[in-house]
Design brief:
alpha+beta, Beta-lactamase, eight-stranded antiparallel beta sheet, about 35% helix, about 15% strand, globular
Length: about 375
Amino acid sequence: MRTTALLLAAVFATAFTRPADAKESPTAEAADAALDRGITELAVRPGGTPGVIAVVQRDDDLTVHPAGVGDLSTGAPPAIGDHMQLAGVSKAFSGAAAVAVVKDRALKLDDTIGKRLPTLPQAWKDVTLTQLLQHRSGLPDFTKSPAYERALRASPLVAPPPAGLLSFVHDQPLDFPPGSKYHYSNTDNVVVQLMIEAATGRPYTDVLQEKVYTPIGLTDTSLPDDNVMPSPYIHGYELRPPDPPKDVSQGFDLGWVAAAGGMVSTPADLNRFIRAYARGETANKGTADRQFRFVRGDSEPRGPGVNGAGLGIFRYRTRCGTVYGHSGVTVAYTQFAASTSDGARSATVSINSRLTPTDDPQAFAPLERIFEDAVCAALAGT
């Protein structure tokens, strides 16, 4: 009887304990070497990205893995303190700001668009903040609108205000009933931005500064309202072989994507942010628990392993273990950042060109392997 009771206790303890972030991993030396090989091969590949920089941190041990160039005109390699566009990783920042405002009780995860933004289309009124953060809203993506594309081409250096971005899909029906499925939409995070402003009565950039940058210690992160990249920066390139790479780092006003993709940061700040965000530094426990409930859904571009979508954060179950973070892509940058749930182990990968599985599956496959190699390097020895 005593043996049976002990066995049952062990079973129940296993069943209700949060799974460990790591499974098994190579030694740190082997993992670092594999990552270095991967990023070097990607940077020298014909027609491949000009530069790559990965940052891996194991507890207090931080290593930087650069390859290729961050500026083709000078040949300078990408550096940990160089600025870059975060693309879709910006959505993790809107998630961090949203849960911070929820923590302050100025906003609730169950608040609806109709309650906070009653002037938006009536078809959107029942969509909740939770559904927006998890891309289960059904809101059509403004960046897929032909009218948006025409407007961007006509005025790349002058963007409308965030509310103006929604006008490109105001008259479109919902893609699906809210909450019924997952579909990544840039519209979601622009609406999150506006809900934060409505709830606090303050500009979104002020909320980011007070609730995200300052508590985490970010000094080189911003949401610009123009096309100017802070110096120094990793130059981003549009690749259209056989034409030479075209520098489009400052080719458009980042207001054209706002909270959905307009953030600028450095590899150092991005690594610091993702460690704090994954451990719930801007959230309270109840909000963090809801944030870490996942549905099947890929980030864009797809992250390593099996992807799951939480509230402003993704889960990546890789061959070496589980991490949490976000990815992103824009015309000239592709990003990935992830950390263990305690913030002790982290990895970021940044390249200065666009690579997605939709645009070029064969070219994206090596990058996806690098994402996983970076995770394995972060988890090495656990």
